Amino acid sequence: MTAVTAKRASHPQTPRRKKKTNRDGPGSNALIGHSKWVPYLFSAPSIIAVAAMLAFPVLYGVYKSLYRAPRFGADQEFVGLGNYVDMFKSPEFLDSLTKTAIFVTGCIVVGTTLGLLFAFALNRVLKRLRFLRAVTIAPYIISNVAAAVMFRILFNTEFGMLNRTIEFFGLDGPRWLSTPALAMVVVILAQVWTDLPLTILLLLGGLQSIDSSYLDAALVDGATGWKRAWHLSIPLIAPQLMISIVWLSYSTLTGLGVVLALTGGGPLKATHTLPMDMYSTAFQSLKMNEALAIATFLLVLNAVLTLMFVRFSRRYEVAA
Amino acid sequence: MAMEVGQGPGAQFPGAPPRAPEPGLTARRSGGRASLARSYLRRALIYIPLILLVLWTLMPFVVTLGISLKTRGEVFAHPDLIPNTPNLNAYREVIERPGFRGAFLNSVVVGVGTTALTLVIAVPAAYAFARFKFRGRHLLLLFTLLPRLVPSLGLMVPLYRMAVTLGMLDRRLTLVVVYTGMLLPLAVWLLVGFFQQIPRELEEAANVDGADLWKRLRFIVMPMALPALITIGVLAFREAWNEFTLVLVLTSTPGKRTLPYELYLMQGIQGIQNFPAEAAFTILTIVPFVLVYLRIERYIVQGITTGSVK
Prior knowledge:
The structure holds two protein chains of two kinds. Chain A has helices at 2-10, 16-22, 29-32, 38-64, 82-89, 91-125, 131-136, 144-154, 161-168, 180-208, 212-220, 225-236, 238-253, 257-262, 274-283, 288-319; strands at residues 67-68, 77-78. Chain A is mainly alpha-helical. Chain A has one domain: MetI-like fold. By secondary structure, chain B is mainly alpha-helical.
């Protein structure tokens, strides 16, 4: 929402009445010549579409999560927070919550580490090696399902590239996708692979906008290499780092496509994250209201995490 | 020109101002062997991650392409990256599947439909928000942009229920409308920024010359905003082409699915996995993008950076 606030700030804040007389020069609607209904007419389709396809469904989902059908096909009755209470009592839900925590943490750690590494490297050579940017964003044009197929091939036990490499060194490659702990690793890597273009571009944007006089000053003070990166560049790109972490947590916390297409939650529910739980509750157990409770919980959790990251990053910026 | 739109910190990247050469690389060139080794080390520190980046990003593509050119037996018999006898059998097999052709057609229709509808709705809305002052403008803009934060996971069940109630399951139109709704916040946001940069004086001059609102939109605003329109078009088409979780719940009969859904089903149906066919299918879903990739790359970059800064 930065644009909204930025726009407001750029206008001189004159009271509404004054505006008419003061800013009636080039800025007035009258000169462009239109009836006063035109802006409403123009923006109405967009507002209606967004309301009908995004705002209403979500609110409707939250509302319906307070209801429950006693038997399948019976009329729904109001149960208040009953679905949520049962949800937190259910061992499957708590299990999925743990899996989600591992998945999201793993994705943020791996994604941010790789993102920083690649962004720092790209920052030095982007002028000369423009094609690297095209390479970087290639995963962005792939659907989650296609990425899952690719990773299933890459991590195949018999002929996968990874195990072939391991065998080359005389070792036996593991059965990646049928070992619970390793399946989680593969899912995290695949999810990070699809999300990394955005992380890299964000961090790279931050690095490119650093004023080089800071870096020169640090150099004069004798700070080089890791020191400079850690104490100077990273604090300076803290806002971008925060945005990329928020985005990663948003994308992985609510991300269903990669997990569903790659493992389907298995093996032995090892990768059965909360989005998977919501999907199977809704479309396999056909408990729509219970699934909506899970979805609502994820939306709230996502909002809480975002606020947490934003607050943490503020403190970090001040401290640095 | 397209790069000037972004307003957030992430958007500086494509059009970043020229900077002085990195002082670290030149300033420390004095002294004996120690500093020479240092300079090699420094270079390695940059190039090793870059090689890793290329491997990390392109390996899945390369491996998949390799598998798609093999036969089913060859996958296990000759697990090398490059097939012994490259052949297009897997591609032929995929294209001959009625499921593939139907899904491909659906994806094209939904993709084109989403792109067109998004542009038709977003352009006037963004123009209104960028050019006109009207009561409730800020509130309405906020109301258009804020729902962008809604993840599609939160929409699956509600949209499914709505589609059932309205009898709109299994219709391409439903997908087009849903995807358009999901893209509008981003599209409006991007276009508002762009329209505001078009000098108002241009339009006023045209107005004096007798050009009405429609003519000004058609002959001044739209041509000048072309880069932004292309960006939105690319993003919209990509979203419609690749979206998986919503098409999964909004369609159920064969012949109504799009490519990602059809590809997803391939794994389940076959029993014994047919890796070359899956790989060929994957490659075929990417082909439309690969063909124009270098031309649309900068628009993708712009779309990603602008879209994420909120």
